[in-house]
Amino acid sequence: MRWDDIDKQVCSVARALSIVGERWTMLIIRDAFLGTRRFDQFQANLGITRHRLSERLGKLVEQGVLVKVPYHDRPVRYEYRLTRKGLGLYPVLMSLARWGDEWMDKGEGAPLEYMHLKCGKRTRPVLTCNECGEPLRPEEVKPRLGPALHKLIAELGEAGESHPDIPPLLRRSM
Q1: Residue 33 within a domain
Q2: Dihedral, 97, 65, 77, 49 alpha carbons, nearest 10
């Protein structure tokens, strides 16, 4: 499967990566969470070429992660703000930061610490079960086919076992 077709897989990870899987994209989103709004600010912070930044911002706007809001009339200038869909990436960004702190530390400590404003304490993200509140560990979580794959499999019948839109890993569990 070509990367340009990754969003066609019946896989939530593949679909998400079709939007945020390019190497500059999460850094743009990170900066948006840190308060960057304007094109020149993104470019100065990231050192990305104008062309590439324009391309990435355009895709994030097209996908509904960011919205362009005019802040100057003549000439028209825009700033970029996170939408609700964009704000939904906050746990992903925080989890990546925690992973980076734990596994990519060069003995200097975390570059940023996060403070929970409600309690005033330093915090770090923990993935928990929405039902019981217990921390989630890979050995204690098992994926199973969801409604979208059940529907696709029913539509495809026996051809579903080799259909290119079903990731091979999931085909083995059918």
Answers
A1: yes
A2: 50
Tell me whether residue 110 is in a domain.
no
89-137 pLDDT, tens per residue?
999 999 999 999 999 988 889 999 999 999 999 999 899 999 999 999 9
**Structural domain includes residue 160:** no
Residues 30, 28: Cα–Cα separation, whole Å: 5
Q: Residue 16 is part of which domain span?
A: 1-88
d(CA 116, CA 134): 20
Angle separating helix axes 25-33 and 12-20, nearest 10 degrees: 80
Global confidence as pTM: 0.82
- Angle formed at CA 5 by CA 60 and CA 100, multiple of 5 degrees: 55
d(CA 172, CA 135): 28
Give the count of domains, the chain.
Answer: 1
In a 10 Å sphere around its CB, with 0-12 CB exposed, 13-18 middle and 19+ buried, how is residue 80 labelled?
buried
Instruction: Specify the CATH number for the domain of residue 56.
Output: 1.10.10.10
Query: At residue 14, what is the residue type?
Result: A
Under 8 Å between Cβ of 59 and 29: no
Q: Is residue 101 part of a domain?
A: no
